[in-house]
Amino acid sequence: MSLAMNEVQPQRPGAVKRVADVDRKRILVIDDDMPLRGMLSAALRQHGFQVLLASDGAEGQRALRIHHPNVILLDLAMPKVNGWDFLQRLHETGHLGKVPIIVVSAHLREDPKAVLQMGVSAILPKPFNLPELIDLIEHLSP
After folding, report:
1. What gap in Å lies between CA 135 and CA 71, rounded to an integer?
2. Are 30 and 72 in contact (CB under 8 A)?
3. Which of 26, 23, 37, 30 minimizes the C-alpha distance to 120?
4. What is the pTM of this model?
5. Is the distance from CB of 46 to CB of 2 less than 8 angstroms?
6. Cα gap 114→118, rounded to integer Å
7. Which of 67-79 are b and which e, b meaning 16 or more Cβ less than 10 Å from the residue's Cβ?
8. pLDDT band at 23 (very low <50, low <70, confident <90, very high)
9. CATH number of the domain at 22-140, please?
10. Is the pLDDT reported for residue 135 higher than 80?
11. Which of 14, 20, 54, 67 pairs as cysteine with 59 (C-beta 3.0–4.6 A)?
């Protein structure tokens, strides 16, 4: 099992969740850039979020099924299962639109309107402003 997969697995079978963990908003970060995932994880945890990490769309799909995040941060340009494939699979399974998705990508070749029409809630180009991202997550999360 890869290190990245361990990032989306439960801490340990039968683990008791603390009340604070149950109430915290879960943010799923799907990005192949390990340093960026680490930075986002630290920053989001510092703001009180529970953070789930996935290195591609396939891991993101598993994390979505297992952990039911409140918001997804999605990169589009990734090897293996990219962000576009992830969105397509969400559409095929009927999950698109149920969880707010923020596309965070430096490689947005498509018209932003077309991306938003796919069911994405917001788009932030890389590099992004962290306070702006935090505000957007707070605004979009239930």
Report:
1. 12
2. yes
3. 30
4. 0.81
5. no
6. 7
7. eebbbbbbbbbbe
8. low
9. 3.40.50.2300
10. yes
11. 54
